[in-house]
Amino acid sequence: MERAKNLKPIASDNAVQTKNRICIIVIFLFHLVGLIGFIIPSLTVLFITLVPWHLLLMLGIIIYSYDNFDSRFLLFATTAFGIGFMAEYIGVHTGWLFGHYQYGRTLGIKLFEIPLMIGVNWFLLVYAAGITLQRSRLKSTLVRILSGAMVLTLLDVLIEPIAIHFDYWHWLDAGVPFKNYVCWFVLSALLLFIFEQFKFKRQNIVGPTLLIAQFLFFAVLNLVY
């Protein structure tokens, strides 16, 4: 009878591990396929149109992989989306944040000239960085926030040339202004601070996997282009 009682937790753990493995495989597989599509000229136009769908898929993967989905997770996701979207709105319409830039067609449907997917992207990146630092040995909340903000700013350094090349957005300034990176760091730090306030329980490695996949994806494209 004791053995029977233990079967359910073991089966449950195995199911969770299997789910996480599937999520990790999907993340790397779709980033690899996307990488090939962006590199092969005959496929590039098609794969550019798939960028918003790729982001939605990654959003679905993160939601699916989150342990014990609840209203707190939904509130954080909505908050990160809203703040990220509003920051981009201010940036595009005033130039006060990031610099003078406009969005192209690659990120899909826009509201007030801002792609809805940019809010999704801010959530995904901040969540992935937050979980990565959550799983680190860094005990200080401030150090985790600043480290995460630095990681996301370094990622933006890789993103910028590719985003410009594939019409995610374009700069009206001559080149990418240093102000952009300062604002990326500050906004990332703000969102990571909010992430810390939710005190999410330790999560699986799906979030960190997404962050690694993003770094690899844009690093390789920078080598190619």
Automatic annotation (TrEMBL):
Keywords attached to this entry: Membrane, Transmembrane, Transmembrane helix
Keyword Methyltransferase included in the entry's annotation: no
Record flagged with keyword Nucleotide-binding: no
Record field: transmembrane: 21-40, 46-66, 73-92, 112-133, 145-166, 178-198, 205-224
InterPro entries recorded: CruF-like
Top-level lineage group: Bacteria
Residue ranges that the Swiss-Prot or TrEMBL entry lists as coiled coil: none
Pfam families on file: Caroten_synth
Protein name per its UniProtKB record: Carotenoid biosynthesis protein
Organism: Mucilaginibacter rubeus
